[in-house]
Amino acid sequence: MNRLQKLAWFNLIVITATIIITALAITIEIRIRGYSTIGFWVFVALLSSLKLKPYLFKKSRNKVLSDERDNLIQKRALSFAYTLFWIVLVVSSFAIFISTGMGPKSSVPAITLPLMVIGGALFMKIVCSISILVQYGRGGKGE
Amino acid sequence: MSKLQKSAWVNLGIMTILTVFCMLCFVFMAKNNAKGIDYIIICFIVGCVSAPLIYVYLKKRGIERNFDEREQLIYKRSFAISAVAMMAFLFALCTIPFFVVGGANVVKVLYLPLIFYSALFAAQFIHSMAIIIQCAMEEENG
Q1: pLDDT category of residue B40 using cuts at 50, 70 and 90
Q2: Residue B88: in which H helix or E strand, if any?
Q3: B29 touches chain A (CB under 8 A)
Q4: CA nearest B84 in A: which residue?
Q5: ipTM rounded to 2 decimals
Q6: Are A114 and B107 inside 8 Å of each other by CB?
Q7: Which residue of B has its CA nearest to A80?
Q8: Which of A141, B57, B88, B94 is 20 to 30 Å from A62 by CA-CA measure?
Q9: pLDDT value at position B6?
Q10: Is pLDDT at A119 greater than 80 in this prediction?
Q11: How far apart are CA A27 and CA A37, in angstroms?
């Protein structure tokens, strides 16, 4: 398993764990207190572990880490994630618009906007990671 | 003027006119609760979903084939710049209103499609501008 694959797996594991643990924390807190405040902090704390990647997966100076094929896979994964992000952005923004009745007075909670951005960013990261893993899976072991 | 520059200017012009026109129409129809807006929106969604797929298809067929190596490099660099700038723009567009309005309040649902239109316009605008600026800089350097 090369560095790119390790990073992709790390992204997937951290994001999945973040979603599950945050959902659990919010559910438990709402059951106990009726509202949730620590859910946000749990989310931020867990997600900030993505920033540990440079320390966990250090680049060694003597070794060649990526070749042309790796770069191509990375580019293709990014391009695929970007395209899919656009489609999801269009569908989600219009789906909310239609589901609320499309009227001029219809409104949504203000929290929807940052949630869309956070959701979009996580979605892109997940799609990119899965795309990298699938491409390596197709073309051999990636070593 | 090279082919790339010409296409960037054409994209910029057409995109600006279409985006302004679409935004005005959309706001007008939504404000007046016009009949048939749902059909238009469905058509628009189909168009927006199919556009990236058509783009990928055209790219496979070699839309950049007419460009030389230097132009292809400029095109790719501009695309990367526009993608990053669009993400930053989208982030600002979604977080600033949240802090201005306040977390407990509501925003008009009309704002969501407008965010999409703005992001689409910003991406195309930055892409075209990046191409034009890079071409101008290269010409200046000889």
Answers
A1: low
A2: helix B69-101
A3: no
A4: A82
A5: 0.72
A6: no
A7: B56
A8: A141
A9: 81
A10: yes
A11: 11
